[in-house]
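Predict the holo structure. Ligand: adenosine monophosphate.
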Amino acid sequence: MQTLDNFNFAGKKAFVRVDFNVPLDENMNITDDTRMRAALPTLKKIIADGGSVIVGSHLGRPKKGPEDKFSLKHIVAHLSELLGQPVKFVGDSIGDEVKAAVAGLKPGEVLVLENLRFYAEEEGKPRGLAEDATDEEKAAAKKAVKASQKEFTKELASLADAYVNDAFGTAHRAHASTALIADYFAPENKMFGYLMEKEVKAVEKVMKDINRPFTAIMGGSKVSSKIEIIENLLNKVDNLIITGGMTYTFAKAKGGKIGKSICEDDRLGLALELLDKAKEKGVNLVLAVDAKIADAFSNDANTQYAPVNDIPDDWEALDIGPKSMEIFADVIKNSKTILWNGPTGVFEFDNFSNGSRAVGEAIVEATKNGAFSLVGGGDSVACVNKFGLANGVSYVSTGGGALLEAIEGKELPGIKAIQG
Ligand code: AMP
């Protein structure tokens, strides 16, 4: 497989798919440029080689073609600042204007294309279908957009000599610029960017080359949204800590009294099944034993501690209690591979964030002692940032949905397109 480090971009044009889907405020100022910074090493390597860079990305979810608020022109000045050099922009993604701009690119120059999702062909989903469209009309529209997607992809590919995918955030999508385009490049001319390389390696360390014991900590509010992940992890881990709001579905399923705590009553059977499966597979499934309970869903509510199976009627559990923190920390500190997704409680409320903080701190300690730790998929990233622990873990993933699909065991089209 080709790598960025082994490729000399001198005199070549590279189409680099990045994830510059950054949040913008009402004045079109970037409020968080993490995703842009994450792609800089890749862009700088190509520039330093003397290659020219064609940057492709999406921004937001345009559903009806070009819209000013989704234009990538808003990020050009900031990219130029980050790279310390001028950056060109063309207000389209394919067509004559783009071809001319690309033809005029000199070595070391950077050109940003307009939002790829201004074309329905990027995602390959039909647009503008009437609400009452028949199944036949829907099928015909889908067929039409798939056909024109081929032309769109081919034209994008024809702009460049090499294809670099550095957009892990969209690796779970089989879109034109994230996966399909790779077919138009020979194996030696397509590769991951540095960010994507790091993400892929991190995922491999928790899904393939596992150093044991392997502990996964799955938090979050609902069992129903994490079933696939939990089931896949039961085939991989030694310890599975299930925490957050999911705790109380398990506690009730086991016959406990959970007061007003969050619970999915239609998943009680599933919770028992998962407990059985864990036993069958020899996985140590760890649940909280105590909770910090509140008399209202508020940071300022009155609080006390209670066993997870004996919560008074008008109270609800908003975080784990001190005994559980100790149990979790003990398991985590004895692990060599750790995956963390989802908080232990309502970490957004400071008074209910201690459990998540304790998990984060135990992971940092295990990491110091040589464990590999991967944090990712939404709220746990917010947690490690909130507690200032991001530098103490091995890797914080940038891809929410993509990481979750990877740990569900799915093959990501953006990765497969390069790895073959
Ligand atoms: P998810 O989006 O499923 O990963 O869940 C994350 C959310 O679960 C966070 O916003 C937490 O506030 C919430 N959460 C975690 N524990 C609890 C709990 N005990 N009660 C209510 N919400 C919770």
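DSSP finds 14 helices and 17 strands in the chain. The mean pLDDT is 96.
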